[in-house]
Amino acid sequence: MATVTHESSDTAPAAGEPASETPPAAHTPDEHASGGDHAHPSDWLYVKVAIALALLTAFEVFTYFETVHGWGDTAIIVMLVAMMLLKFFLVVAFFMHLKFDAPIFWRLFVFGLILAMAVYMVMLTAFRYW
Amino acid sequence: MADTMAAEATTHSPHAEEHHTSTGISNEKLAMWVFLGSECLLFGGLLSVYMFNKGRIGPTDVGPNDVFDIPFTSVSSFVLLMSSLTMVFAVSAIARGNLRGNRIWLAATAALGAIFVAGQVYEFTAFYSEGLGFTTNLFGSAFYSLTGFHGAHVTIGIIMLMTLFVMSLRGNLPQQRAETVEIIGLYWHFVDIVWIVIFTIVYLFPQ
Amino acid sequence: MTVTDGAITAPEETLALPAGPVIANRPLGVFTRPQGNEGWKSWLFTVDHKRIGVMYGAAAMFFFLVGGAEALFIRLQLATPDGSVIGAGTYNGVFTMHGVTMIFLVAMPMAAAFANYLLPLQIGARDVAFPRLNAFSFWCFLAGGLLLTSSMLIGGWFQNVPDGGWFNYAPNSGVLFSPHKGIDFYAVGLQITGIASLVSSINLIVTVLNMRTKGMSLFRMPVLTWMLLITQFLLLFAIPVITVALFLLMFDRLWDANFFNVAAGADPLLWQHLFWIFGHPEVYILVLPAFGIVSEIIPTFSRKPLFGYHFMVASGIAIGFMGWGVWAHHMFTSGIGPLAVAAFSVSTMFIAVPTGVKILNWLGTMYGGRLRFTTPMLYAVGVVSMFTIGGLSGVTHSIAPSDTQQTDTYYIVAHFHYVIFGGIILGLFGGLHFWWPKIFGYMLDEGWGKAAFWVILIGFNFTFGPMHILGLQGMSRRIATYRADEGFAFWNMVATIGAFVIAIGVAMLLWNIYKSTRDWRRAGRPDVGPDPWDARALEWMTASPTPEHNFDSEIEVEGLDEFWHRKYGKDETGRVVRAAPTSEVAHDGSNTKVHLPSPSYWPIVLGGGILLVGYGLIYNLWLAAAGVVLLVASIYGWILEPPDDPEAAGHDEDGHDDGDGHGDADSNGDSAEAEEEAATVG
After folding, report:
1. Is C210 part of the contact surface with chain B (CB cutoff 8 Å)?
2. Most exposed: B28, C1, C575, C678, by fewest CB within 10 Å?
3. What's the whole-model pTM score?
4. For C574-611, how does the pLDDT look when each residue is reduced to its tens digit (9 = 90+)?
5. Which chain B residues are within 8 Å of C274, Cβ to Cβ?
6. CB contact under 8 A, B37 and A112
């Protein structure tokens, strides 16, 4: 087990109090780039996000059973995709900390994501899939 | 990327998480994000293959509507979604120095993941007994490939979480290594968002 | 990370143990790390990016000879009408293996050799971000390469060899049409080399983004580093696509899935799309490193800075983006529909623009320069001229009606050999001569080097020039024979003679390596000095051969071509004058206190595990299970082995001990775990 030294004991209690956590070097353009745990949101925020995710999932499943209202397939698909994207970005932004973390992560990940969607959608279009 | 030099030029903060790299980000975390960017193309490809092939079956073949059990899959999806919550609790606990809490949440995450995988095994068995094998038709091949790849990723995630758990028990996972947990967490959340997409497109889309 | 914080804030306390808490590391006894840097063991267990680079180069040269021999068999078979040197079935295997070998086992690893050796040096780093992963990339590549090559021998000479062409179109690749195990070797072997490329790309991207020395902003990096970075991004995003395609193929062949089973309603065009979504970026993966090499050689021997550095970088990035939007030009005749053909035709015409920018910039660099036609420069000029020919014939393919006539004829073969041999192989050979003194500490003989260059260049044009004509005459590619009355005989004979001239040129190149090595040894191993070519980038700023620790102290970079500007300044009249002798500027490699990452057993063991899994998938799943056990064991061995040698106990992964030398070794479980996932993706 690691021994706690003066350095970690300086920071350890502070990590629990986000308000007092701004590091001295906060004037740098990407203060979050330090990857510090100071940027982590509180557990309560995570719970709120999880509740939102659960509600969205419940509503998604609801559309599966309640197609009787005369919604067309297209409307349902649009709604499902919207909710899927919302869930996706909630997890990415909050659970994966991209909202608080260095922008380079965001760029790398979104580049892969957009590229994937672009090439595969073009491929399916070439097959006249839609 | 232009800001990287600025980050380097500033004096090092006394904060414990500063990294001595050009970007100020640790190599491991950057590598994980680069890897996840690459994974988007893998799952995107498998998902497109599924979408392309799911309808290419004969009129009497076993299709999505014949086998899918939405209530069951909804529950297991919910379990996986909640494992992301326990995962962030684990990261949050170790960042605060709460090693015991970290262990508890790691174990909880692994357990929820295991429930999901067990659900998938059950689902596969049920589908198989209803006449949908891997070789039955194109829908079967594509479905099992896509969800199987995802299940393999979850399984690897569980193994990594268990490894972290054992490391923590042996005292090899102190607060200074909080980032290791965070990085494994990134992988875990990615697997979760892949399932968010699969669940919507594969299971919930009107067939 | 945290542990080294003391060292970061107080670099002067370098030789003391880090001030932070010592993380308990409890190796399970057996997991010690190998020591020493002498003998064969030091190569097998090395994590040094330079040795790994050399091994990549040596392996690529070996496979180059294999692929070259296959090429000679192709040309012998086609030398005369109704050729009977090898049968049609063997011929299919030979041309398939020639393509697969040259692309995946020669051009890619040879570029990886330069990337491994030079990229850390050019950004002033101590090593790559994850040295052990780097070693694993090499062993994994070698495993895939040996598995693929072994298909020629296993079960009889060319009995189980891939025979579907390098792009291996479905449904021809199915068990129904190719019942022997050749295509299985193709699917599994490329999957394994794909894992290697993916791991390596992650490693090198992190290296470039994170390990640059002080002041080395992105736009101060040499063009070679830029081109390699773009290549790694292309690999990062292209490899997963071929991974998907290869998995589908593997599932079809090994476990009777239906992805390409037309009888079950499959559309085999899916393979073509997936393959070329990977395959066209792959073309740029192959060519961009060669472009980078040429961009290093030409300014050096023109004694001018590269003309339009920013344009050069921007055009590389543009190629990196646009390379994703042109794949269907390989499929114009597959019936993808007029709209798709038109769209991809236009995007293909556009991608010629950034390539043209590069040609222009090289010419602009040479224009008005003090040209020295050394061997590397000859190769570089050869690239500029030959690649231009290949590029121009490529533009003719972007015009769909014209392409419809040329598809699957020798015109295509001529085009891509002008690009791949004339652009890539010549560029890589130029780099070989250029950096040989840096890597091995002595020059290759210039006389033999130039002679070999001319022989190769002439042979090359005699081989592939006539194929344009043959193609326009209507000779199909991939046919084993042709009739005498078809009028193909003369130019085929010329091409065959040309191929043997190339072989003589390559033999001269190899003789040059042997002879130069022998002469250098006989002369008592004279020192070539750090900078024999009077070059510009940072790798020339340290001793030759590069000492194990790279640089004696951290270099602070103030601009592009830093090394050059330390050597040369301008006088009052604006003339370039020598500011300092090289011996003052360059490091002599005498700092032996730089902390080095310890060698490791596990990368090669992990590679062995993957090889077992590969053979197991093809032949026996129990063997694969044994491979998986070995694989998992070595991953845990990797995680559990101590981060460093015993003397440096307590250093964590960022073992940044010396204050100088950008000495971030890896050595932590994280990298292994990241790799664990990588291994499962591929």
Report:
1. yes
2. C575
3. 0.88
4. 888 888 888 888 888 888 778 888 888 899 999 999 99
5. 45, 49
6. yes
